[in-house]
Design brief:
single chain; Inorganic phosphate transporter; membrane; transport; transmembrane; transmembrane helix
Length: about 325
């Protein structure tokens, strides 16, 4: 079999594997609050999230096109197939490591940093599409800050609306609301995160000369959405434990506020075709909600560890991807 065909098949397999891992790694964030407040039992929450992720994934393609052309130029990428394969291997390795230790690290940061690192190893810093890459970095940096503010505002609004309600009545009503907010959260996750895998596969197809436009083919959309949904169905209970309980003690009203705040930020980014980290956005929204409730109620020590992981992910996985590229380049 032609070497190029083998490489392309490997890329598709690893890309779908990344999407599958992303499903049980990142989707845990989307349902963490509803599980921790007992609005939904874990199995029900996971299965609902799997379905909503699939629907969200096949609905939009704007973020996928941004991944295809904004990090590197797919039509000028030197040894593109090996670059993308190296990036996928590095991103998958990083996701598995952080998942094992229960650290809510970002799959988005991992794959974007990995593509950049492998491309630099292959063709130097000039291989990056700086205008697009900077735009993506800005979205990744500012979206958690916006989510933090949104979480604070939504929780403050809830406090005014529910000021005279009894605790028992509030909890019962909000738990019902949380079923809807968790579903919305999972849907928005699919609209943004699954798009990244679609973009990677399309980037590979262009790099090997099998596609001449950045259009996302239907088989790519369906396969990526299916991989994300299957991964979600496996669940991510380690991450649920961290996001749903270690940042702050979450009550139903806190969970609903965090879900609404983060879903609005993620979906807003999807509409303007920008990839964001659902992990960062959801964790930041929870911190914002906690700050509106009581600043000392947020476990800032855990929050600092999460933020530190955010900072080190891109350079670390970029270096790992560069090493992977140099090794793969010996064989391909």
């Amino acid at each position: 079999m032609d070497l190029l065909v083998v490489l392309t098949i490997l890329i598709v397999i690893f890309a779908l594997a990344f999407d599958f891992i992303n499903g049980f790694h990142d989707t845990a964030n989307a349902i963490a609050t509803s599980v921790s407040t007992r609005a939904l039992p874990p199995r029900t929450a996971v299965m609902m999230a799997a379905g909503m992720n699939f629907i969200g994934a096949i609905t939009f393609t704007g973020v996928a096109k941004a991944i295809t052309k904004d990090i590197v130029d797919p039509f000028a990428l030197s040894n593109g197939a090996v670059v993308i394969l190296a990036a996928l291997i590095a991103a998958i390795a990083w996701n598995l490591i952080t998942w094992y230790f229960g650290i809510p690290s970002s799959s988005s940061h991992a794959i974007i940093g990995a593509i950049a690192g492998a491309a630099i190893a292959a063709a130097g810093f000039n291989s990056l599409n700086y205008s697009g890459f900077v735009k993506i970095l800005q979205a990744l940096i500012f979206s958690p800050l916006i989510a933090l503010s949104m979480g604070f505002l939504v929780m403050s609004l809830f406090k005014v609306i529910l000021k005279r309600a009894t605790l028992m009545t509030t909890n019962q009503r909000i738990r019902r609301l949380q079923v809807g907010t968790a579903a919305l959260q999972a849907f928005t996750h699919g609209t943004n995160d699954a798009q990244k895998t679609m973009g990677i596969i399309t980037l590979a197809l262009i790099a090997v000369g099998w596609q001449t436009t950045d259009d996302i083919q239907m088989w790519v959309r369906v396969s990526a959405a299916t991989a994300m949904g299957l991964g979600t169905s496996i669940g991510g209970y380690r991450i649920i434990k961290t996001v749903g309980g270690k940042i702050m003690k979450i009550r139903p009203v806190n969970g609903a506020a965090a879900d609404l705040a983060s879903a609005s930020v993620i979906f807003g980014a999807t509409l303007i075709h920008l990839p964001v980290s659902t992990t960062h956005v959801i964790s930041s929204a929870i911190m914002g909600v906690g700050s509106a409730q009581r600043v000392k109620g947020v476990k800032w020590g855990v929050a600092r560890k999460i933020v530190l992981t955010w900072i080190i992910t891109m350079p670390s996985v970029g270096l790992l991807a560069a090493i992977c590229y140099l090794i793969l380049n010996l064989f391909f």
